[in-house]
Every structure is written in structure tokens, then in C-alpha cells.
Amino acid sequence: MRTVTAIVAAALSLVASPALAQAAGEASAVIAPKCDHACLIAAVEAHMKALAARDPAQLKLAKDVRYAENDVLIPVGQGLWRTVTGVDAAGLTAADPLTGNAAWFGSVKENGNPAIYAVRVHVDQAGAIDEIEAVVHRKTALPAPFGDVTKMVHDPDFAQVLAPEQRRPRERMLSIADGYFSTVELNDGQVLTQFTDDCGRLENGISTTAPPPGGGGNAAAIATGCENQFKLGLYRINKRVRRDFFIIDEERGVAVGRGFFDHANEFDHYLLTNGREMKTALKWPNSITLLEAFRIRDGKIARIEAVFTYVPYFMPNPFRDGVSTPPRHAPQPRTCDAACLTAQATQVMQAYVGNQWRSVNWADKVGYGENSVGIRVGEGIWATVAAIDPQPLIVSDANTGKSVWIGRIEEHGQPAWAAITVGSGGQQVGSVEALIRRKEYGVPYAEPAAIPAYAELPRAQRTSWLDMAKLVDGFYAALNAHDGKPPKGLDPSCQWNVNGQALGACAAPIAGNSLQWIARWRDRKVLAVDEARGLVAVRVFEDIPAAPREFTRPNGAAMPNSAAYPRSLEIVEVFRIEGGKIVALRRISTELPFGMKPHE
Q1: Which of 314, 316, 305 is nearest to 145 (CA)?
Q2: All domains of the chain, ordered by start, with CATH?
């Protein structure tokens, strides 16, 4: 009888279990946010006050809080937190209790200079901030809107509650706002959402839909209004818009999303729908990361405010996309020696021209990245490279299973420096890491020219693989020490060349301790060593926090910090070593968001 009772009870529990189910991926069938609209607005405004004070301790932060600045995860308190010198008294704010997110749009000052800023904060069920996602746009040589922050005005309609008849349900608002991104993606004149007749857009503090003073300067000089620009196809360069929405506020008609505009720049000119020819501002693949707010009234987009800045092409969002983990290929020196590796690097480089990636003998699984971002082979510079250096520097090493190609490339006729690391998967190509440096990122830079051939050394002048690696280790240890002591093995005659520009003696900045503005050199990896020519190719990252603002030289004199804003550099550096001494340094470096990690 007890057995029967147990069976019946078990059967009843199985029948009853569906009543305890909830939506897939959700912890409960009842979602009752503890932080309402006012609470969330208070949280994001508290964040801005704490940022202004450079004190994250003022905030109630979750133990596992994650902070991203321009899509790179770094500890709260780093990046802009160390360089901010002012925050707008008021910004555009929005919130959504259902998702627990709030946003703020405005401007800040960084080391005294204006910067356009937007942030998303997420408040967990315990009332603590567990996610902070910031976009910071600084004024650089790259073409992008940058308004006068003293005249920036946020449309007050974003904060106004709509009359019930002017509102639309959450799902419809999402469709309307997403239709904006669908319209701008591969913009060909087709409009996939609706706009009010007076629709206006503020981008990085400047109107890009109203006629600019004096004419020229942005898209509004060609066409005014939101819809008219899209009907012309002004934004054809947007190959892809990767996006999602984290705020939908039905009462106020506000939707806020985040995403990336991927400018593949597979062409350098295009036609508008009226037949006018346009030229791309940049000749290479790039992406912009953004936070964007939409005010929707009567089912139409009436106002838009966006903050965006450049990031490497196909950059992922750490909160949404995670990071890629490329396949690893162990070195196989018995099946691919130095000559084989050089042939593989040459094959890859020749295939870039004309996007002939299918001609490469690829492994079954391949890792590919450009400027520390994993992307698909066939995109990125595959679609832009028109020519390569006929006499590059190539360093190949069977011990590491890698070959490093350094030289000139041309993208739609514009030259740039490239350092391409090709990893072997035996007789096939297993990985490619491309580092590209363009002139728009400023000095140090010189137009790509011939690289020294670096002839083989007499045997008496050669240094063993292990001893060369030790010299490299000592060099970076001296840089990180910041004590004014040049490393052992650095020849007094050594000259430093960065992105084709001669910078003078290698020892001078180390002895003068003038590199203190570079906080550290990290994630160093020996890529390839050529004993016969005395060459060591190394990949390393530099972190430049732009703080503190002043350092002290070994003689006690003050030295101002030359860095205006936080950033990191990815570097491929080649050492020339003769007779156990470092006699030359040749570096290719490119700028990345602060704290960015290697793609590996």
C-alpha cells in the first residue's frame, strides 16, 4: 500500500510540475522590479556624481560589478575615472524598470578637455549597480561630429510623459526604433520606419539634421531632416548595424539602444539615389560604438540623440557578445620549417590583394584577427588591400610556428604600415593576426618606405635563441621599472624607429625616465626569432592611462604627462641583435581602447 501511495504521489508531482514553469531563460514567472523609474534615474545620476568626484566608493556596487569603457572591460576606477575633471550639471536621462537599466547622455571634461559621454548602468534586485557601460568620444584627427559642449542642449521632450493616445506599446516602440537601424544599414534609400516632419538628431553634441552654420561640415549640408538623408542613401558605408535595446519607456516614448556601425569601406566611392558621387571619409574598415536614444511620438521617431566613437573593426560588446577564443595551433617545426613559414606568410599576403582568401591553404579551424578583434576571413582589410610591399621584412621561426611580415600595404590607394603574424597549422595556415597602423592616428608616423634588409650576421656576431630572448626580457623589464636605468645589452648606438619615423637613440628616453606616461608594457609574446640575422619579433601592449598629470625625472625636475586621454597600444617590435647587443629597434604600433586585451 505504501508503494502504491508513493507511485501515485510521484505521478501527481509530474503532472503538477508544469504549473511551476516560467519563460525560458527567466528565473521567475513574476518579474517585480524593486527599482522604479525614479530609483533608476537616481542611480545613474549618483553614478555621474561619483564620476565627477573620481570616487566609485560613493556608489552601491555589486561585488561582481563589471565596467566597460568603449567596449573594454577594466576595473571601476580606471580609465575616465582617473582623468575626468568635470561633469555636466544635467544630462539627458532615461530608464526602464523592467530591464533595470538607466542611461545618461551629455559631456564631461577630461584633463581639462571636453569629451562627449554616454553611460548605461544596470541595477540588480538588491539595489546595487552591477554593470556600467560607458562610451567616451574624444576629439581626435579621425572624422566624426564633435559639438561645442557649452552650447549642447538636450531636447526636454525626452523627459515629458506622453498623452495616452500618443503612446505605443513596448513591442511597437521596439519595432519603430529598430527600423531606424535597419534603414541606416546598407542605406540605399529605402526607409523602414517612420519619422515626424520635424525629426531632429543630435550626434556627439551637434545637430546632423539641421543646416550647419555657414554650410558644410556634416550630412545636413547635403540634406536636412532625418528621412530625407536616408532617402538619399547618405549612409551607404554602413555594411552592418549590430544592435540591441535595453530601455523602452512607454510613458515617455523613449527607446535607448546600443550597437556598432560597421563601416567595411569595401568601396571608396558610391552614388546617392540622386546620382551624386560621394567619397568615403576613411579608406579602411572601422566601426563606431554607440549609445543612442529615440523619442517616439504617435508611432514616429521625433528626436534622436547619440554618442559614438571609433573602435577597431568588428569590435564586440563584452556584455552582449563576450569575446572570441580563436583556435590554438601548436607549433609543428618538423612539418613546417622557416622556409615553409615564410612561404605561408607570403601566400597570405598575396591573397589579401583582390580578396583572394580562398587561394590560401587554410587549416580546418582558423583564428583570424585585426587590431586585436576576431573577425571573419574575407572581411576587414581583405576587402580593402589593393597592393602590398614587394620587399617586406619577414621573420620566421619553426620553434614558435610563426612568421611575421612587416611592410607597406595600400587600401584604396592609401598607404599604411602592416605587421601580419601568420601561425602555422602544419602544412596549412592556422591563424593570422593583423596589426595595421594608419597615418590618421598621428605621430609617430612616416609614410611607409623601404625596410632594411638585415643581412645574415657572421657566426661570431650571432646570439643564441635563448640569449636573444633574455635580452628582450631585460629590455621590457627596464621599461616597466621606470628607474632611469637602461637595460644591459643595449648598445649606445641603438636607434629606435616607430611606424617608419626615426625617434633617435634607444637609451635616451629610458635613461631620462621620460616614458613614465606609459604605465606598463604587458601581454608580451615572442613571435619569431631568426638567429642568423639576429632578429627577434615581439608582440606587446602598452597602457597609457593619461594620469597622473605630472612625473618626476631622476634629477628631481618635474615632467608633465603628454597623454591627453587613456588608451592602449598594440605593438609588434623587431629587435636587431649583434654580438649580444641590441643595436636597432623597429616598431609598428596602433591605438586601441584603454585596457584592450590581445586576441588569442
Answers
A1: 305
A2: 37-311 (3.10.450.50), 338-592 (3.10.450.50)
